Amino acid sequence: MTPLGIIAGGGTLPLRVAEAVAASGRPVAVAVLDGHGDAATFAAFPSRAFRWGLAATMLAWLKEHGVRQVVLAGTVSRPSVLSLRPDAAGLKLLARIGRAAFTGDDSILRAVMKVLAEDGFEVIGAQQVLADLLPPAALLAGLEPDDLARADIRRGIAVCRALGVADVGQGCVVQQGLVLAVEAIEGTDAMLDRSGPLHRDGPGGVLVKCVKPDQSRLADLPTIGPRTVDHAASAGLRGLAFEANGTILLDRETTIARAEAAGIFLLAFDPAAFSEGTTA
């Protein structure tokens, strides 16, 4: 059985994928993105840390370990151009990625996946390894959102779609129809922290997260977990609403328990249920 390669960023998802694959009896090789993931976390597996500028060397290392399928998992912040310091092979790889390296997140991911395919790798989604990673539409915690919260969710979906078309971010915070914050390169937790001081009196706001229009489902899906709930509670929010079958829910039981303890609703929604003119 050929090993599964994992290109690991930060967070708990890469390790969960590695452990699940290893438990199934399939070998694993983990390439850790230096500055994002912690190589020590993967000491039980063949692993090595690579900085961005050695991406071509990383792909060669995966091939040496017999990898043909790759999962891109974990949080990654884009490095500055000056920090890349690519070697000769890295320069050639960067040239193949082209202008996408300097545009939106989804653009660069599509370019990277194209390069991986050209090099003989098949990219698969983490959800193909871990069952129940993408919740279907359901209220997972808290009380059913009232009409004001549903209006905020509908507004948030529209804002997220506009952000997604521009390939900027996947989330926003809406309170009583007002957009308090939108997600960009800082990530969800920092956005939530930024929205806290903008909190209005009255019913709290809602974090809304959606898949970008035409986004690949193989990497960089919207993600929430226990830390998201903690930051949302600190920001005075009353709910987290995220696109069903398209958002990764990390540590499901812990996340739900924290939301219940904080009095925050968790809603995995079908976007069709919040289309214009829908009142139910």
From TrEMBL:
Where in this chain does the record put each LpxI N-terminal domain?
4-133
Residue ranges of the LpxI C-terminal domain? 138-266
**InterPro entries xrefs:** LpxI (IPR053174), LpxI_C (IPR010415), LpxI_C_sf (IPR043167), LpxI_N (IPR041255)
State the Pfam families in the record: LpxI_C, LpxI_N
Could you identify this protein by its name? LpxI family protein
